[in-house]
Amino acid sequence: MNITAISTRKRWLQEIIIFFAMYILTMLHEWLFINSLENFLKGLVFFIILYVQAQIHRFFIFRFYLQKKYLIYIAYSLSVIFAGSSILFVANIYWIQPDFFEPDEVVLSFLYHFVICIISTATIMALSLMQSYAIEVQRRSMDQILLNEMNLKFLHAQLNPHFFFNMLNNLYGVSLTEPDRTPGLIVKLSELMRYQIENGNVPKVSLADEINFIRNYIDLERERIGKRCDIQFRCNHSADEMKVWQISPLLLIILIENSFKHSHNLTDWFVHIAIELRQSEFLMTIENSLADENLRKPSTQIGLNNLKQRLFFVYNNDFSFHQKKSETRYKTTLIIPLEK
Predict the structure, then answer these.
(1) Most CB within 10 Å of its CB: which of 46, 148, 235, 248?
(2) Residue spans per domain, the chain
(3) Taking the model in full, what pTM does it have?
């Protein structure tokens, strides 16, 4: 069954529910007097007349109000309400409840039916507007979800070449200085690339897998610059402890890449990374040295901008991201919620 058919069935079901809910509310005070099939039919006809004139207003007249044709809207509304109350008045006098009104109360009786028609129209319109509003909110929510998914895919597409470009640069540097180590680093790089390709477009991955990906990346950096840079990575949680949690993939690597890229210092080069689980929260703190003036690399900010956008799309405002810069070091703190 296609989406259109499902939507049509859902709308018909809602209309049926509204019909019976309105019928029960309208006839609630008459239930004690419905003691035969004829009385039931009388009550049903009474309600159907109210319901039909209200639906005519809903489907054929209310659009004039939306078009801001107020005089036409008022004229048609009064005409339909007058016609509905007239039919209801005649049906009541001659069949439904002929003994309810006295002969000298014709005007009062008609006004009663006129007011009943206005109330039924207002009630139907209120329910209809609430239904339309709920549908519009649902549609906008779905549109936003689809937009977020498209944006995330776009950001991942930007991240992939950015990440590979950095890693290939690293590998090129090692091949020039220590070519014997190149084959092993190629294997590590292939594992990193495989992880990113397989998990780049999924919404969540195991935290244990993501941390293992980070470890491999840091190991590769340690192979490249470990002799010159003080690299520390602290994560005291076991794989079994972390695999129960889920995290959006490839968020952390952006900050870790930046910490290595912009920390090159000839006197005190360091990158310290700490990961901690606090109940259902993930905390990562990165402290790195600031690059010497003549060693600073130009930054396009692509990775950092991607990170901020992805954090907003995935976690809305339920995250904390802070950066602090001093004379000698740069500190980044990221706190995000975890899901099982």
Answers:
(1) 46
(2) 3-139, 178-337
(3) 0.54
